[in-house]
Amino acid sequence: MNQTNLGIIGVGTAGKRIAEKVSLSLPGARCLSLDDSEWRTLGGRVKEIVLPLGLDKSPGNVKREAWTCSDDIASFFKGVNTALVISGLGGTVGSAAAPIVAQRLKEEGVRVLGVVIMPFKFEKSRHFKAAVGLKKMKMVCDGVVIIDNENFVEKAPQTPLLKAYEMENDWIGKFVSTLLGSDDKFGLEEGDVYGFTSANKNNIVAVGHAEGSGMAEEATTKVASSLRRQSEANVSSALMCIVGWRDISVGDVSTIVSTFRGTTLCEGDVRTGYYSNGE
After folding, report:
1. How far is CA 32 from the centre of its chain?
2. Angstrom distance (rounded) from CA 84 to CA 158
3. How many Cβ atoms are within 10 Å of 90's Cβ, its own excluded?
4. CATH code, 3-199
5. What Cα–Cα distance (Å) separates residue 144 from each residue in 136, 183, 267?
6. b (16+ CB within 10 A) / e for 225-249
7. Element spanning 107, H or E
8. Residues 48, 19: contact at Cβ < 8 Å?
9. What are phi and psi of 260, to 5 degrees?
């Protein structure tokens, strides 16, 4: 994908931190952040727009201020064909402002893909806002990629909370960069991942990690478990990205696909891609 035609906007605290990660890997893209406070470490790579919320951080005020600055957002992304709106849902700014941003960009004729991060299970107070924000993002975006925080609890349950957030931001930044970039991969062509996600309204990212004998089946079973936790709907099709496994065999790939179909009852297309590096 031509990076000069690409826009990245991070909404809220998590969104703007991930936008900075992406700006390092996609230097040709236009990157913007929208939040109620400045984040000085963004430097010159990401333009910042600060919402003047003051003490009123109600959803209604966030929406009003987001609409007020939407002209500036549209102007910044003028000439962009495709934009990613990245946001953690559950907080006030991300849940309320991200759909506003996506809607305004759609009105400008931009193809919009949302990348949203759902709260942890233990963050009960954030679940309602997250659900409302997700519903609105699905209404206005061409496609939405849903990332579940619980994937990271299962992968590293003893990791300190702040470190876990940092690791998650790094991982999502790499995911978005791979989604739109031209990293070396086998089985998937450049643009295939984005094409898949933008063609489907409801996309869920599930992560399965395993080591040792039987890891192909174990990792795939974890992926299926994550999908069931996030959605009760049947899986219609899938892109499976196998990362960092240098000695993968044809039999291993066959096991992964057959296990996935058996555990998710997916009867549609299942495509596989292999990434030799990364986490």
Report:
1. 16
2. 32
3. 25
4. 3.40.50.1440
5. 11, 22, 22
6. bbbeebeeeebeebbbbbbebeebe
7. helix 92-107
8. no
9. -65, -45
Encoded amino acid at 116, one letter: V
Q: Does residue 124 contact residue 87 with C-beta atoms inside 8 Å? A: no
Number of Cβ within 10 Å of residue 24's Cβ equals 11
DSSP string, 201-217: SEEEE------STTHHH
User: What's the CA gap between 166 and 32, in Å, rounded?
Assistant: 20
Q: What is the pLDDT of residue 64?
A: 94
Q: Which two tokens stand for residue 151?
A: 């994937």
The answer to whether 142 and 105 are in contact (CB under 8 A) is no
Query: What distance in Å separates the CA atoms of residue 189 and residue 1, rounded to the nearest whole number?
Result: 11
DSSP 8-state symbol, 118: E
Mean local confidence (pLDDT), 21-50: 82
Q: How far is C-alpha 258 from the geometric centre of its chain's CA atoms?
A: 26
Q: Residue 82, exposed/middle/buried by CB under 10 A (0-12, 13-18, 19+)? A: buried
Provide the token pair at 275.
Answer: 């990434």
- Tell me how far apart the alpha carbons of residues 156 and 245 are, in angstroms, rounded to a whole number: 19
126 pLDDT more than 50: yes
Grade residue 169 by pLDDT with cuts at 50, 70 and 90. confident
CA distances from 21 to 4, 18, 73, 98 (A): 17, 5, 20, 19
